[in-house]
C-alpha cells in the first residue's frame, strides 16, 4: 500500500491552499464515492484533504428569495430540514430518496455535486432550479457547471463552499431508481422559476442536462399531459446493463410527467 498524507484543515482558505499545492491530493467530503474507489484500487491519491472540520461549510439558511445550503451539509440534513421542506419541498424529497440511511447520513450535497456522477440526484436539482454554486474562488451558474462524465467547471484547488437555490414557484422530481443502489437510471426535475419552466435530467447521459422540448411544452401548458408525445433522441444517452439508450429516452418524458404531477400535488 502506498503512503498517503491526511489533512484536516480548519478553514476553506487552508483547504484550498492544500488542494492547490498538490495535484495528486483529493478532497474528502462525505466519502461515498472516493472511499469505494480507493478500496477497489481505482484511485490512489497522494493525500486526502478532509473537509469535516470546516464549520463554514455546514448549514442551511434562507431568505425570501434564496435557499443556501453549505457544501458539507448531509443528504439527511437536507431531507429533514424544516426550511427546505417549507421552501423547496421537492429538494427535501429528492434528498430523502438518495441511497439508504447510512449514505444519507454521510454523503454531502457538495461532494455529490462536485463529483458529477451521471446517475446522482442532486445535479438535476441544481440544474433544474437554476442554482448558483459558490466556490472558494468565484460563483458558477448551474448551466455552466456540469461539463462531462465526472467533470465540472471546477478548477484544480477550487472547492464548492455553498449552493444558492432560487426559490421556485413550484418544483417536482421523479426518478426510476436502480433497485440496489437507488441511483437514478433516469431522474427528471421540473421547476417553475422566475425565468420560466426548467427541466433537468440525470441518469440518462454523461452528466445532467436540460431538455428544451419539454421546457417549451410545459411553458405553454404546465400540466402532466404536456409531456405526452415528446420524443427524446437516444443518440447521446447511456447504455449499460440496467437499460439501453432507447429505454432511457422513453423514460425521460414519462418521468417528466410524474415530476409535474408531484409538483402540482
Instruction: Count every helix, treating DSSP H or I runs of 4 or more residues as helices.
Output: 10
Order of helices and strands: EHEHEEEHHHHHHEEEEEEEEEHH
Beta-strand share of residues: 15-25%
Strand order of the largest sheet: 4-5-10-6-7
Q: What is the name of the CATH class of the domain at 170-264?
A: Alpha Beta
Level of helix content? 25-40%
- Alpha-beta content class: alpha+beta
What overall geometry do the principal axes of the alpha carbons give? globular
How would the blueprint of this fold be written?
Blueprint: E1 5-7, H1 12-21, E2 25-28, H2 34-39, E3 47-50, E4 60-62, E5 66-70, H3 75-80, H4 82-87, H5 89-96, H6 101-106, H7 109-115, H8 122-128, E6 132-135, E7 139-141, E8 146-148, E9 151-152, E10 160-166, E11 170-177, E12 184-193, E13 196-202, E14 209-210, H9 212-220, H10 245-264
Parallel strand pairs: 1-3, 2-3
Antiparallel strand pairs: 4-5, 5-10, 6-7, 6-10, 8-9, 11-12, 12-13, 13-14
Account of the 3D structure:
The strands form four sheets. The chain has a five-stranded antiparallel sheet. The longest helix has 20 residues. It has a domain of 95 residues: Enolase-like, domain 1. It is globular and about 55 Å long. The chain has 265 residues and is α+β, with helices and mostly antiparallel strands. Helices cover 32% and strands 25% of the residues.
